[in-house]
Amino acid sequence: MPDKQYIVVVQCHTVKEVCSGYYCEKSFHERANGFKDYPKDSPLRILYITCGGCCGKATHRKISNFLRKAGTSEGITRDQVVVHLASCITKDNYHSPRCPNIDYIKALIARHGLEVREDTHISPKAEERRRAGIYRPHGGSAQSPKGSR
Fold this sequence. Notes:
This protein is an alpha/beta fold. It has one domain: 3-Layer(aba) Sandwich (Rossmann fold), CATH 3.40.50. The protein contains six helices and four strands; from the N terminus they run E-H-H-E-H-E-H-H-E-H. It has helices spanning 13-16, 22-30, 58-74, 87-90, 102-110, 124-131; strands at 6-11, 45-50, 81-85, 115-118. A four-stranded parallel β-sheet has the order 2-1-3-4. The termini are far apart.
């Protein structure tokens, strides 16, 4: 992905009320988990936005604004931008189940002609719970974790 200049991370608006995004940023900095395919020495820039709340419609407006500003200001083109849907959107996890509006959000991003990738930080504990059937790999119902997060 040497032609990419910018990563836009879309996080769940509801989850962002309680999550700082620290582990997503850490995964980016270390080029781990959802960012493992990016070279560590690549001078990528990253922008974090939220979906704006259910149903995620604000994603379109926010990305439109970003593309306009980055294009005018720095000459950034659509092919230099990749959008990552944060793991709080793509996976059943501690914060919430997989986003029920994920396909709609992807369609909104696709209207801009941008590449979309899934995942940012992958929690080892959440992966363990997915394997145990407590969290579902792609949404749906699952049993509640008893007493611990």
